[in-house]
Structures are given as structure tokens and as C-alpha cells.
Amino acid sequence: SFPTRRSSDLAQIDNNYPAHSINSAYSQTMPTVLLLNGPNLNLLGTREPEIYGSMNLSEIEEQVSAVLHEHKIECETFQSNSEGELIDWLHQHKNADFLLLNPGALTHTSIGLRDAVLGIEIPFLEIHLSNVHQREEFRHHSFFSDIAVGSLVGLGVKGYLLAAQFAVDFIEQKGTSAGNR
Ligand code: DQA
Q1: CB under 6 Å to ligand 1: residues?
Q2: 60: CA distance to ligand 1 center in Å?
Q3: Most CB atoms closer than 10 Å: which of 24, 59, 134, 153?
């Protein structure tokens, strides 16, 4: 099982800390979900809209953050076109509780990003807007599916929102084993 900070810890803090220190106590203990997008996902909205839809990445990030904030979970977002930057960012955020990851084309190529995800030991969901299995053969293999908690493929933006909802449940300890999913 994975170490997670539970929302019940927050209730604990409410009782034990004087009012003036509640805010800083929250910022230290609020669970955090990472939303990480790989190469070319900065072009969402204009890039092949018949495949990837018309919503841009900031809109997706806002919607995912909104789901998480409703449950008092912080959301940190990042996108890069560079494999090294994605890896460095993950190393810098290794204390987070859950990761929502669309590796873009690095899905099919990057052992380096795979090793980074394994190295930080954060449970994660793999997300693809398009149904990669209905597309070119080279998109059928993923370096992430076998180490992810699960994958959401071909559901468009809804995949990100369902993934965020899953992260909430996971953090609240409702869906930590396959049987409970
Ligand atoms: C993608 C699918 C990848 O094959 C592609 O390289 C992307 C986007 C998706 O979200 O459908 O960049 O990850």
C-alpha cells in the first residue's frame, strides 16, 4: 500500500492547533495531486481537434483543480515538451500523494520518464485523450500502463475529470485495492 496523508489528519489539526496557525498547518498537511502533461499537450485546443478536442490545457487544468479543491486537495500542474524537465519536476514533487499523467508521445518511448515515476513511488493514473488502441500500431505500446494504478484512454477531457475523482477516492482511502475500484 502507498503512504498517503488522509483528510482525517486535517480534523486532527483543527482540534490541536490555535486558530492563527490553522492556515499554515493546512498547507503542510493538505494532500497534493500532481497533474503532469508531456510534449505537445500545450497545443491542445488547436492541435488536431478532431482527435484531441477543442479544450485547451489551461481549461483542463482548471477543471481538474476545481474537482480536487472541492475535496480540500491541492493540485500542482506542469507541462513540458522536454523529457528532462518532466523528470526533474517529478523529482521535485516526490512528496505528493497521487499523480495524473498524460506523457504524450513519451508514453511510447520513454524509459527515463517511466523510471522517474517508479523512482518517486507515487501512485498514478495514465491518461490519454484519444483511444491510442484505435490509432497507429506504434501507439499501442505504453511504458506506463503496467506500472499505473489504471489507465483512462479515449475519453477525452472527461478522462482527466474521472481520474481526478478517482484520485480523491484513492486519497480518502476508498479505492486502494483493485476489488474496491
Ligand atoms: C496522447 C496520445 C499519444 O499517442 C500522443 O503522442 C499524444 C497525446 C493522448 O492524450 O491521446 O501526444 O497521449
Answers
A1: 40, 102, 104-105, 107, 128-130, 132, 139
A2: 15
A3: 153
Residues carrying an active site annotation: 52, 128
Mutate to test the pocket of ligand 1, among 130, 135, 151, 157 (most ligand atoms within 8 A of CB): 130
Gyration radius of the chain over CA positions: 17
Question: What's the predicted TM-score (pTM) here?
Answer: 0.83
CA–centroid distance, residue 159 to ligand 1 (Å): 13
CA of 130 to the centre of ligand 1 (A): 7
Cell numbers given for 42:
500545450
Say whether pLDDT at 9 is over 70. no
Residues in CB range of 51: below 8 A, 6 or more apart = 129, 130
CB within 8 A of 177, min separation 6: which ones?
none
